[in-house]
Amino acid sequence: MTLGTVRSALEGLTTDVDESGSRFVFGCDYNPEQWDRSVWEEDIRLMVESGVSLVAINVFGWAQLQPNPDEFDFSALDDIIGLLHGAGIGINLGTGTSSPPPWLSTLHPEILPVSQEGLRAWPGGRQAYCPSSPVFRAAAERLVTAVATRYGSHPAVRLWHVSNELGCHNALCYCDVSADAFRRWLEQKYGTVEALNRAWGTAFWSQHYGAWEEILPPRRTLSSGNPAQALDFSRFSSDEVLECYLIEERILRRLSDVPVTTNFMVTSHIRTQDYWQWAPLVDVVANDHYLDHRLPVPHQELSFSADGTRGLAGGRPWMLMEQSTGAVNWQPRNIAKQPGELIRNSLAHVARGADAICFFQWRASAQGTEKFHSALLPHAGTDSRKWHEVLELSRTLDAIREVVGTEVVAEVAMVFSWETWWATDLDSHPSEEVRYLDQVHKIYRALWEAGITVDLVAPGADLSRYRMVVVPSLYLVRDHEAATISDFAAAGGTVVVTYFSGIVDEDDRVRLGGYPGAFTELLGLRTEEFFPLPEGAQTRLDNGATASIWTERIQTTTADTVSSFLDAPLPGEPALTVNEFGSGRAWYLGTDLDHDHLWELLEQAALGAGVTVPPAHVTGIESVLRRGPEADYRFFINHTGLPHTHTISGHELITDQPVTSLEIPAGAVRVVRTERTES
């Protein structure tokens, strides 16, 4: 797929839903198999009333479509497709493969996945299959072929929905079938066992392999295992789940011209898929996101997820496939959304590039593990605050419909790597407190609170459109990926690199000669030893900052010291440096700064880079710019409990009023159209 294809597929969903021009896709999952048919017509009537334009069905339909190995029954699916089509509602048609029916695992228990400890997972939940299982794949192929043959040219089908949240539960399987597939993957990658031995460093601990059949997945060991083996297994596992997608995608493309996608999970708790490898293979980049109340500020992680999804879409508009109207069912404490939070969350996704806003699900389930998961139509029915908020959201999306197709403006990029996430979080490192996503979130939070919009980009991506690039704890980096960052600085860009970056290559092999390895020349310094701090300990810097988790002994070569440590273990040693490199500048942060000083550092670096930093930015007021060919659209999202006034001239779309001094009520969202300005 090309980015042009991705965009045209989403434009097809936003422009063809009616004859009045572009509008946001407003959609949901629907599980009619959970309800008596007498409910279906009421549901569709209410969908029309609420403005729903796209409905995902058959996501979990396998057991209904194929009640036994030798029978297909499409009668119920035919009926619901006919009813939706008759109401003018488009269909996001699931392939139905996300959870195999009980008869399949009864006949073939070998498809069931196995944990690292050797425990088999039994059916009764979902995704009870090994991604490498040829038996599962063959059964899935048969089902998808039947579904695509029957509905591939149906006029109601607007989008193919392959499986569901692929790899959410079963991405890592350690069974013998996976072991065989892992060996084949390794043989294709390395060619010879000796090449694998060199890459994995098997001279350590007598791990040298003499034949492919000796190699296993990184199953539970008595001591720490081989980190290079674990890293390759993560890569293999992502590729195997991706192959499950591709098996279905190839069938759909052969039997249908309808765009194909699947729902990603760019979230804080799912890390098993390297979506940089997946994104070019879908026609629409789609994401599922739910507020994670285990995090200190859930709506900041929402923005991070949205920026990450936009990065996967190459900066183009994307699709929010799932979110919730209120509480979910799978967290330790499932917190309901406050009044106004549903609209704030939805428009935060829109502000950061989403042109499709969809929910799980339409009608709240009466049974099953998700019965307390919120929905557009709650258990309480239409006589409820939630239903009226849904109607308000639909009206709001219609009021700002001219935003559709515009793109988010970002002058700062953050390099983000799933491979580095896998490698950083392995054991036997200098400090177990250095967790990759924690470091990324700290940097992102400081930029978010400074009002700086960020694009997440892959290592090695083209950086020429940005003024500043932030590189948080990029422990694993290839030589050419590091060179891209250095070249950006040499050409005049500003780079901010944080500690534990550039340390190892793609084989998790330490770069010798001193840290930070791949970035020593760019940063103009050399670290000879790490000095992680004890749990809970802090150190002070001479600029008044405090720091925790990490210190290191830095020797500057061409860099200037900006701040130094005051306390043990490294009093007087550099903590923050800056290096003039080519026509640009590279900052290095060798410790874990407190939040306020991290914010100050990033704001200082951004201002020096010429980044547009909002003056007197108010923490809790999210401000993002989407740009069209003729107008700019500034989103203001007030996450605070107080009203806020902002000086801006233009036309506010939600209230449909001209403004020169904009008031944003507590908890509200405003979208201001302004005359097109120069980039």
Would you identify the CATH H-level superfamily of the largest domain? Glycosidases
Q: What share of the residues lie within helices?
A: 25-40%
Summed over residues and divided by their number, the pLDDT gives a mean of: 95
CATH class of the largest domain: Alpha Beta
Return the domain count.
Answer: 3
pLDDT < 50 runs, ≥5 residues: 1-7
Give the beta-strand count. Answer: 27
**DSSP strand (E) fraction?**
15-25%
Radius of gyration: 26 Å
Distance between the terminal alpha carbons, to the nearest Å? 28 Å
Second-tier CATH architecture of the largest domain? Alpha-Beta Barrel
General description of the model:
The chain has about 675 residues and is α/β, with parallel strands linked by helices. The chain has 3 domains: about 5-170 and about 235-405, Alpha-Beta Barrel (TIM Barrel), CATH 3.20.20.80; about 410-610, Rossmann fold, CATH 3.40.50.880; about 620-675, Golgi alpha-mannosidase II (Immunoglobulin-like). The chain contains 18 helices and 27 strands.
Quickly list its features.
single chain, 679 residues, alpha/beta, TIM Barrel, Immunoglobulin-like, 3 domains, nine-stranded parallel β-sheet, seven-stranded mixed β-sheet, 32% helix, globular
Write the layout of secondary structure elements.
Blueprint: H1 3-15, E1 25-29, H2 37-50, E2 54-57, H3 62-65, H4 75-86, E3 90-94, H5 102-107, H6 134-151, E4 157-161, H7 176-190, H8 193-200, H9 227-255, E5 260-261, E6 263-264, H10 275-278, E7 286-288, H11 298-312, E8 318-322, H12 341-351, E9 354-359, H13 385-399, E10 407-408, E11 412-415, H14 418-424, H15 436-449, E12 454-457, E13 468-471, H16 479-490, E14 494-498, H17 520-523, E15 525-530, E16 538-540, E17 546-548, E18 552-556, E19 560-564, E20 574-581, E21 584-589, E22 592-593, H18 595-609, E23 621-627, E24 631-638, E25 644-652, E26 657-664, E27 669-675
Parallel strand pairs: 1-2, 1-9, 2-3, 3-4, 4-5, 6-7, 7-8, 8-9, 11-12, 11-13, 13-14, 14-21
Antiparallel strand pairs: 10-23, 15-18, 16-17, 17-22, 19-20, 20-21, 23-24, 24-27, 25-26, 25-27
